[in-house]
Predict the structure.
Amino acid sequence: MSGEKKPKAAKTGPNRTAPVLGVLPEPVTLADRVVIEIRKFIAAAIFFNSRAAEKAGLGLTDMQMLHTLQLYGPSTPGRLAAWTGLSSGGVTVALDRLEKAGFIHRAPNPDDRRSLLVTLAPVRLGKLSRMYADVERETRRLLATLPESDLEAVVRFFTVLGEAHDGSDLHKQS
């Protein structure tokens, strides 16, 4: 098939890249292996979250919005938009669905009367918590097998990764 374009070959060296959605080259460096394992983990997590969202009668975006609120606490819609990369309209639509389903509450923001504060509704989160309990328990069991120095390295890595890939500054509240 002479008209087909082949994916670009992977570069060599520490800054090598694989063709986007092409066949990955065999990992050469430890960094290659880390990147591949992260991608596998992300793919598995997305599929797990998708199944959990479906069981809860939610869309994946709505489920991720709940996770964001759980991880970062009460938030304004503007902060949620920055954290998720959704437009303000996209956040509003997701919050409308979540509020209608009883997963969140919106109330006037005591720090800024022009905005709202979005909080989780704990009563509705029980079913979701049970879906994630086995995964969290198994994760904690596996983490307990690692030396503390490895866990510290993992935390440092994810902190650096989060800050480097955080165009919206997830770790700072605005």
About this structure: The beta strands are 104-109, 112-120. The helical segments are 30-55, 60-72, 77-84, 88-100, 126-143, 148-164.
